[in-house]
Design a protein that fits this description.
The protein is α/β, with parallel strands linked by helices. It has helices at about 25-35, 55-70, 85-95, 115-125, 140, 150-155, 170-180, 195-200, 215-225, 230-245, 250-260, 280-295; strands spanning about 5-10, 40-45, 75-80, 100-105, 135, 160-165, 185-190, 205.
């Protein structure tokens, strides 16, 4: 593969209009803001991108529009979250043709496979494309746990180049390094474990809430790269109530509401998700508005 993936690869929302139709222009405006903040990649159509509620044509339209907007400035990855291995292979081939730079591959949705079946799904999908692939491990949400030993078994598949580790157990980062060394770039996908994960030696961050606060998000990452841990801790303490929004079952609604309050998008989501209302909405807005009110002053150029 040309380059080792590292840095901030945010998970990007699919912006929608109030009638739930795609808003490709708004999605493109947001990707421009993220690129301006200094991210080194973009992940479209992941869980935060509402992949599973979009129809096949819509997913391809989102990716095609993003590739045209980005124009090669950073890698554009697409989530692959299909219900069957054959559909995952078809989608992987299609997005390669549309100009994607890589994939973030999830286990097959709906069915909880055993380790042999999960491995088969990953290996078969990888054979369908020449694109580099980030394997997404999130046993909390998707019921399939990819262990360090399984990552070792997958290491012979050359286009598996990175891991998004979202088990919520930071011990896994060290266990993966012990088992497979530097075979993969390791990304954390849990916002409110970023600092802990950075200390353990990750390569990148698939950021969630930070897409509403991209400058602060990027600055926090940069501080960890420079081992400026005291400064990173202070910024992380401000950020943490916001980062908790990423680890709730309604993280899509929460983060889209944060985008709206920060002027970077709209809160509209695709059913069965619905926009927040009542006390829950007020509570989330309180967290967001407090974060905006106390937003730290960053160094010039950040």
């Amino acid at each position: 593969m040309k380059n080792r993936w590292q840095g901030v690869f945010p998970a990007v929302t699919t912006q929608l209009k109030k009638d739930q139709s795609l808003d490709l222009e708004a999605t493109s405006r947001h990707t421009e803001a993220l690129i301006a903040s200094g991210v080194t990649g973009l992940i479209m159509l992941g869980s935060l991108g509402e992949n599973q509620t979009l129809d096949p044509r819509e997913k391809r339209l989102v990716l095609e529009a993003t590739v045209k907007t980005v124009k090669g400035r950073v890698p554009v990855l697409s989530g692959v979250a299909e219900n069957s291995t054959s559909l995952a292979c078809l989608y992987a081939r299609d997005v390669e043709q549309l100009g994607a730079d890589g994939l973030m591959l999830l286990p097959a949705m709906i069915y909880k496979g055993d380790p042999r079946e999960t491995m088969h799904h990953f290996q078969t999908t990888a054979k369908a494309t020449g694109l580099p692939i980030m394997i997404y491990n999130n046993p909390i949400s998707y019921a399939n746990d990819i262990t360090p030993q399984m990552f070792a078994e997958l290491a012979d598949t050359k286009n598996f180049v990175a891991l998004k580790e979202s088990s919520g157990n930071t011990r896994r980062i060290t266990d993966i390094r012990t088992t497979v060394g530097d075979r993969y770039s390791i990304f954390t996908g849990v916002d409110d474990l970023l600092l802990e994960s950075a200390i353990l030696g990750i390569d990148g961050w698939v950021a969630g809430t930070g897409i509403a606060f991209p400058r602060e998000n990027q600055h926090l990452w940069d501080l960890t790269r420079k081992a400026r841990w005291d400064e990173a801790l202070r910024l992380y303490q401000w950020f943490t109530p916001l980062l908790h929004l990423d680890t709730h079952v309604k993280f899509v609604q929460y983060i889209k509401l944060a985008l709206q309050e920060c002027g970077l998008g709209a809160e509209w989501v695709r059913a069965p998700r619905l926009p927040l209302k009542g006390r829950e909405r007020d509570q989330v807005l309180s967290v967001i508005h407090e974060g905006i009110r106390t937003r730290p002053k960053l160094p010039k150029g950040r």
